[in-house]
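Good morning C.,

I know you're traveling, so I'll keep this short. The sequence:
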Amino acid sequence: AYPGHSAAYNPLGACLGAAESKSALVQVTLNKKDQDIRIYEMVEQLANRLTKVKSDLSGWIKLYRSYKVLNNQEKAINAIRTATEISPDKIDLKIILLKELMPSDAKPKITNEIEILIQDILTLESKNIEALFFKGLIFLKKGNNKRAINTWEFLIKNLPKDSIIKKEIIKKIIDLKKEN
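The tokens, ready to paste straight into the viewer:
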């Protein structure tokens, strides 16, 4: 509500009259398509600017987030990949890239890039939970259950006592040991 007006006060209607107010609301709704086009244009302008100023880390992160909002996965991955190239010591960026390349809702294709990325993360932080989890998962996908178990046993030593993830990994380790 506006000061001195009821909660039902419509400033647009008060200024334009009821019929004109409805017309203005329809126009706002119709402009949603134009707004989407403008958003895409702004994101592409950012992308074009970044091709000229490749070292703009915050720009690449903004571009990654923008492409995520626009559901453009391929361009989002390329943007975060560039951010990791600009700042190779930032573990958080490498983890974002790793999670993008190995989404939990799909069967990831294990690539050389993923394996190098995991190794880079573990070189920077040897007890990194995400990297250790994915490293064990890769061993498992490659049929190397013993190395998967060893990696995950190291991982669970670094997880909180009551962690749900810890309990799930312990169950998986037990199942793998039964298979061997």
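Safe travels,
E.
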